[in-house]
Amino acid sequence: MGSAIAWGLAKAGQRVAVLDEGDIAYRASRGNFALVWVQSKGLGLAPYSAWTMRSSNAWAGFADELEQQTGIDVCFQRPGGFTLSLSQRELEARAGMLERLQSQPGMQRFEYEIVDHARVKGALPQIGPEVAGASYSRFDGHCNSLKLFRALHAGMQQLGVTYLPEQRVESIEHGAGEFRLKTAKGEVRARKIVLAAGIDSVRLGPMVGLHIPVRPQRGQIIVTEKVAPFMNYIVQNLRQTDEGGVMLGDSVEEAGADPTVTTPVISVLADQAVRKFPLLANLNIVRTWAALRVMTQDGFPIYDESASCPGAYSAACHSGVTLAAAHALFLAPQIAAGHLSADDFSPFSARRFDVQAAAA
Ligand SMILES: Cc1cc2nc3c(=O)[nH]c(=O)nc-3n(C[C@H](O)[C@H](O)[C@H](O)COP(=O)(O)OP(=O)(O)OC[C@H]3O[C@@H](n4cnc5c(N)ncnc54)[C@H](O)[C@@H]3O)c2cc1C
Question: Fewer CB within 10 Å, N- or C-terminus of the chain?
Answer without folding.
Answer: C
